[in-house]
Q: What sequence folds into this?
């Protein structure tokens, strides 16, 4: 069990550019979540996948954001036409469905800076 | 609309003493709660959980207490160690299709040697 991994750890981009982040969940976990965290706040839910199906999207996820989990394993989060307000830590978490415990395990995050 | 609140932004405690971190919630549908510890530039690390069918859960130096009538939970760390210095988040979820978590804004704990 190598835990949740995210790539890249840091991304600096210019306003208007597109960026894509990757998350590899714990291998047997079928639930995958994306959260966003800004300074002084707790993580905020963005979207949720069970296997390959995207089952919920937060209203925080504007049309410029898209997420996929094509084979029910890794997931990508793409931000198009980035804005300075997109600067944040993007966190991925995974958990196992079908159990009474509901812990989510987080990756190290991708820190996005939009200049 | 902050459904999960951590009203103390920071807390300082002497090494060896008890640290008590508090969390309040407003949504009566929340039935599962987690505490996370976070160091700078890292993702949150899961510490301990509690289901609404319990009022206490203990794991080593960490104990979480849940008072459903008051919609309040607390994390006790005994004894506190300098390595416990971090930001602590409580998070709550309801039984639903997604089991997404709503997080508080965190409490920065500093354990003084």
A:
């Amino acid at each position: 069990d190598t835990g949740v991994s995210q790539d890249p750890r840091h991304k600096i981009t210019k306003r208007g550019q597109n960026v894509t982040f990757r998350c590899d969940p714990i291998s047997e976990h079928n639930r995958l979540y994306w959260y966003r965290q800004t300074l002084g706040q707790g993580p905020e839910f963005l979207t949720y996948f069970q296997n390959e199906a995207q089952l919920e999207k937060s209203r925080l996820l504007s049309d410029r954001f898209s997420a996929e989990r094509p084979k029910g394993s890794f997931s990508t989060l793409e931000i198009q036409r980035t804005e300075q307000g997109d600067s944040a830590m993007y966190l991925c978490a995974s958990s196992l469905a079908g159990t009474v415990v509901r812990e989510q395990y987080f990756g190290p995050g991708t820190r996005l800076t939009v200049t | 609309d902050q459904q999960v609140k951590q009203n103390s932004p920071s807390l300082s405690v002497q090494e060896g003493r008890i640290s008590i971190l508090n969390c309040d919630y407003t949504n009566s549908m929340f039935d599962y709660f987690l505490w996370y510890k976070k160091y700078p530039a890292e993702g949150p690390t899961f510490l301990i959980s509690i289901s609404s069918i319990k009022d206490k859960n203990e794991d080593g130096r960490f104990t979480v207490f849940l008072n459903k009538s008051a919609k309040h939970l607390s994390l006790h760390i005994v004894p506190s160690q300098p390595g416990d210095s971090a930001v602590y988040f409580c998070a709550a979820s309801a039984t639903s299709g997604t089991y997404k978590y709503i997080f508080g804004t965190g409490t920065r704990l500093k354990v003084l040697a």
User: Anything to note?
Assistant: The interface with chain B takes residues 4, 6, 31, 33, 40-45, 48, 55-56, 91, 93, 95, 100-109, 111 of chain A (CB under 8 Å).
